[in-house]
């Protein structure tokens, strides 16, 4: 079994919680999870930074992405 299949199988239908997801490595991790797995849900802990609210930061991140399959940005709680 190759590495991609093993990772995909481990995370299939899982829910993950990620802190630091707006940093460089966090963005790489999220991209990898979205591209290579069939996650049920991803929760991100996003804080205010440099005068931007968490919602504004997420909006900026997802507007700068090339493409994400089957992704909907929910309203922040």
Give a brief outline of the structure:
The chain is built from three helices and two strands; from the N terminus they run αβαβα. The protein is of the alpha+beta class.
Please tell me about this protein's structure.
With 77 residues, this protein is α+β, with helices and mostly antiparallel strands. 42% of the residues lie in helices and 13% in strands. The protein contains three helices and two strands; from the N terminus they run αβαβα. A two-stranded parallel ribbon has the order 1-2. The protein is elongated. It starts with a helix and ends in a 14-residue tail after the last helix. Its EC number is 1.2.1.84. Keywords: Lipid biosynthesis, Lipid metabolism, NADP, Oxidoreductase. It catalyses: a long-chain fatty acyl-CoA + 2 NADPH + 2 H(+) = a long-chain primary fatty alcohol + 2 NADP(+) + CoA. This is Fatty acyl-CoA reductase.
């Amino acid at each position: 079994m190759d590495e991609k299949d093993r990772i995909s199988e481990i995370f299939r239908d899982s829910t993950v919680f990620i802190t630091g997801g707006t940093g460089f490595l966090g963005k790489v991790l999220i991209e990898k999870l979205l591209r290579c797995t069939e996650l049920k849900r991803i929760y991100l802990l996003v804080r205010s930074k440099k005068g931007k609210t968490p919602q504004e930061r997420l909006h900026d991140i997802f507007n700068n992405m090339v493409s994400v399959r089957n992704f909907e940005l929910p309203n922040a709680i």
